[in-house]
Design a protein that fits this description.
Radius of gyration: 16 Å
Structural class: mainly alpha
Distance between the termini: 39 Å
Largest sheet: none
Number of helices: 4
Length: about 100
């Protein structure tokens, strides 16, 4: 689904575009089936088009009792690039 197929979602897409342009955080909530996933997918595509790295995580009942499961989902794809960080504060922050 592309942004052009999200009929009637111009306001939401504009707010998410502001977020991509330097917003600090965004909370997207709503009833099941209202299009949250479609809005997030359109925003992720826009971010990737702008050269941003998009990290995704999804909750599951299976991982409900596992501490930091979503954080693990987000950071695991970046682990292979850890060696690329300079041996300075950044690496120490990630390793600790």
């Amino acid at each position: 689904m592309s942004e052009s197929t999200l009929f009637g979602r111009d306001t939401e897409l504009a707010r998410l575009a502001v977020f991509l342009d330097g917003g600090e955080a965004v909370l997207l909530e709503g009833e099941p089936g209202v299009g949250k996933s479609a809005l997030l997918a359109a925003t992720a595509r826009r971010a990737e088009t702008c050269g941003m790295k998009v990290l995704r995580a999804s909750g599951s009942e299976f991982e409900a009792d596992i501490s930091y499961a979503a954080l693990n989902q987000l950071l695991l794809p970046l682990y292979a690039r850890l060696a690329e960080l300079a041996a300075d504060q950044h690496r120490r922050d990630v390793d600790s």
